[in-house]
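Teaching assistant here, posting this on the class forum so everyone can see the example we discussed in section. The complex has two components, and the goal was to see what a joint structure prediction looks like when all of them are supplied at once.
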Amino acid sequence: MLKKYKEPIFLLVVMAISVFMFCEATTIHVSGRSRNPVGPATWPEIMLGGMFFFSALLFVIDIRRIRRGESLEAVRGEGESADTADLAKDKQEYPQRGLYTFIFLVLYLLLLPTCGFVLSSAVLLFLYLLSLRISLRGCLLLALGSTAVLTFLFPHLLSVPLPRGTGVFQHVSKLFY
Amino acid sequence: MFDFFLGLGDVLTPLNLLIMSGGVLFGLICGALPGVSGTMAVVLLIPLTYSLDANAAFVLLVATYIGAVFSGSISAILFRVPGAPEAVATTLDGYPMAQKGMAGQALGWSIAASAFGGVFGTLFLITISSQMAQVALKFGSAEYFALAVAGISVISVMNRGNEIKGLICACFGLFLATVGIDPIMGANRFTFGFTGLMGGINFIPVVTGMFAISEVLRKIQTEASVDDQTLEISKKARSALPRLREWKGRVGLFLRSSTIGTLIGILPGVGATTAAVLSYSEGMRWSKKPKEWGTGIPEGIIAPESANNAAANGALVPLLALGIPGSATTAVMLGAFIIHGIKPGPTLFTDAMPVVYAIFAASLLSNVLILLYAPPFIRAFALLIRIPYKILGPLIMVLSVVGCYAVRNSMVDVWTMLACGLLGYVLERFNFPIVSILLGVVLGGLAETEFRRALILSGGDYFTFFERPISAVLLVVALGAMLLPGVLSLCKRLKSCRAPKTAHISS
């Protein structure tokens, strides 16, 4: 039942976001606004209004189609690129991998500013690869190897700074770059 | 022309050829790495040029930039991660083509288009650079706004049958481009107290998130991508330069895209990325089969790749002829000119003629060198796809994180990438065309700023956009292109409504 209404629910979320952002846009203030024909809030207000209007329109169309017993999946297809149409064919045989990937990314981004690039990349990449059932030796080799290559490539060869972390981690990072 | 051959003679010394080869190779490596743009590659080499004479210095810088602009397409085609901002539009057809097992052809078309666009842009530069620079100066805010609208208008063609979702995505993209400090009045918009958002949302994290991260999230969950499919693609990921008969019917697209690229490159402040996106949208608009665009066709690679390489050369026109840097890279090159005691501008062609023609010759030869160096470079790079996706996926993610961080050394960009990755994953599940978001983010800043600036200059007169001939023509074409599909489908519906009635009456 709920599966049928997945897209309309998503559209409701889009509408809620556009209303929230629209309210936020109305609070944008600058002095001397009256002298300019179009203020800093006008353009985003038009875009958010458009987003709300088109989402509401699609919501009504979707609801009417569902009530008529048409499947939204069947209605799609003709206007889509092969890229998006292929998505439906993908079988999620390992859905837990998607979850691990998301957890890895969040933890990685949280640790990066504190622990620095070398430590957080090596440790988290090792754990993540382990969760994907790669052999222990492979995990170790890949985690350390890729961290070493990126550390050599970016800070050393290309002079592009990477996060060093704070406190003791900063001192550890300074040993490498 | 005699001066050009003198410049060519200067460049063809063994030392300069060696410097040029090194520059092209360095550019190829930098461009293929996400987060290291052509501008950054040129900046990195500036200290090296102190010890070189002016001719050799500019040979090195031009060769590096041209190499970097091309190689951004390699990772865009193979991994859906644009190596350089200029390759953003190449992802749209390059990656689906690689997924069909045609990675070699995709890379081959990319090399051919880059070389063609580059040579076209250089020839343009040699012949009518000073005249075109004067025309570019006539472009005002109204024209820039109209140009952006013309680019955005392609969403009606791009998302036929899925227009409403395309419009929602385009509005969202245009809205994303407004985050940060307002460029005209300095107001803070949608930053929610985060100082990191004041500089706005850079489109590199948006594109990396929506294309690369969402793809990793999707592919890592499927079994097929882990072994068989990737192996199949990697076997075919050897660049196969297109045969002469394959060019048939595509020469017009090559010429049109290169012309668009060169003309947009000449306009100060627009850049090769916008040129590639606009060329892609125009290519789709003029195509007889617009529905096939985005499904993995060579035309979708030819259009952006010819344009971005032509634009890289076009950007040199205002720098050399007027002393105005049209892009970030040419701004860096302006610094290099000053370091070597040369003043770019109208007097450059008389004061430092050998340097100017050395730049022209280096630009031409670097594009030829791409044809030589790119195939082995791609072969080495393509070895990476032989790695199973459960290993490659995490490596792409770490590289994407580093690449996004390197853009502005900001963690906000990396978080933006993650948020966009999740959003892209969800939007693709609901069949929203994320390409429309990309169009909005790339062209949104230009559209809004120039729209407001034009109105300020005209004292709030909205007719200013139609009073200037260039902007009027561009806007009429864009509006026509946007409204035409709707009008045509309405006519079709009316016809089909009438047909049964008349049939009923006649019976």
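For the discussion questions: Residues 2-506 of chain B form one domain. Chain B has a mean pLDDT of 82. Think about how each of these relates to the inputs above.
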